[in-house]
What we know:
Layout: E1 4-8, E2 15-21, E3 25-32, E4 39-45, E5 48-51
Amino acid sequence: MKETSWVSCPICYNKTRIKIRIDTELRNFPLFCPKCKQETLIHVKQLNISVIREPDA
């Protein structure tokens, strides 16, 4: 199993500048994509990435 992985953008699926290890846990992390210029909130636990959908204000 891989020990590290690059986080890909959930919108355009390109690699971001963030690299995570298998023991990394992120909560409400603002992930910025340098290609599509979008920011997305994510949770990461054991290399599983889930996108947080917030209701529009």
